[in-house]
Each structure stands twice: as C-alpha cells, then as structure tokens.
Design goal:
Elements: H1 11-26, H2 31-47, H3 55-61, H4 64-72, H5 80-94, H6 110-122, H7 124-139, H8 141-144, H9 149-165, H10 168-171, E1 173-175, E2 181-183
Antiparallel strand pairs: 1-2
C-alpha cells in the first residue's frame, strides 16, 4: 500500500536546509575543490541504494551526474556563486554529518534531496541554460569543441529577442510538413 503525501515547507521550515547549504557552499575554497566534490558525489551516488526511497528523493539524486558535469564543464564556466552553491549541494550529499542521518531507512536521503532542490532552484536560470547548452552540444558534435557559455547565452538572448519581436499570434505557430501551421 502506498499513501501519497504532500508537504508544503515555508521559509522557516526550510531555514535549517538553507543554512546547511550555505555552510557546505562556504566551506569550498577554490575551483579544484569544487571539481573534487563533483567527482566524489558521483562515487558516493554509485554506493547509495535509492530503490526504496520516495520519488522526490530518487528524482533529485538522479540529477547529481548532471550537476557534476556542469561543474566539470570547461566550456561553460558557471558564475562563481552558482558553481559554489551547486558544489555545496554535492558536498552536503557526500558529508556523513546530515540533518537526517543517511542510515535512516527510506528517509535518510530526504535532506540531501532538499538541499539539491534548493541549490537548483536558487540557480534555476543557470541550470536550465546549461542543460540546453549541453543538449545542443551533444546533438551537434561539430560545434561542441568551440561553443562556450558566453556564445550560448548570446545566441539564446538573440533568439528570445527575435521571438519577442514577432507578432504575438505568430509566436505560437509551428510549421507542419505540408506548409500549414499548427498552433501549440
């Protein structure tokens, strides 16, 4: 039997998690340390059994390889604040001193998942841009070795600007093979 549970956490409920994230982020001194944390998080993830963890936990922990890849991405070079906070979430995940002990059955990784969620929400624009950037590089291997974060952000801004200049009704049209348009 499973029982769906929804929990709404307000700012005061999230305070211990936010403070833990700040502490983990602040403890990282340099870029090399952030890279080391990224590698360590991937190794730790391989040792964690999330089979019986709640979906929220599984889905957030599944983001660890991508978070690690963002930190290791030489072509992206995320801003210091974003990379420090994302690395801080990974550092918290690897640390044995948690708000909820990891050994606690089924719920030991809940705090780790919440910390990951907070770090990504605080850096949502950076996270989404990197995901798009990474997908584009993988789809177009010929540009992968030359495309940088600055190039990508510049292209994205141009595309948004061009879309904003189109009449509103044309923004939602998508061409269909026979020359007609489909509104989506």
């Amino acid at each position: 039997m499973s029982v769906p549970v929804s929990v709404l956490l307000d700012e005061s409920n999230l305070r211990p998690f936010s403070e833990a994230l700040r502490g983990a982020s602040g403890a990282l001194r340099d870029g090399q340390e952030r890279l080391d944390v990224a590698r360590q998080a991937e190794r730790c993830l391989a040792l964690v059994n999330v089979e019986h963890a709640p979906e929220f936990v599984r889905s957030r922990l599944s983001l660890i390889p991508a978070m690690s890849a963002l930190l290791r991405d030489q072509r992206w070079q995320a801003p210091l604040a974003a990379s420090r906070e994302i690395a801080g979430a990974l550092a918290y995940f690897t640390d044995q001193c948690d708000l909820i002990p990891d050994a606690s059955p089924q719920f030991g990784l809940l705090d780790d998942a919440l910390i990951i969620e907070l770090a990504l929400r605080h850096n949502l624009a950076e996270w989404r841009e990197w995901l798009s950037f990474d997908a584009a590089r993988k789809a177009q291997r010929d540009i992968a070795h030359v495309l940088t974060r600055e190039d990508w952000l510049s292209m994205s801004e141009r595309q948004r600007s061009q879309l904003a200049q189109r009449p509103t009704w044309k923004r939602f049209l998508r061409p269909v093979e026979d020359g007609r348009f489909l509104v989506h």
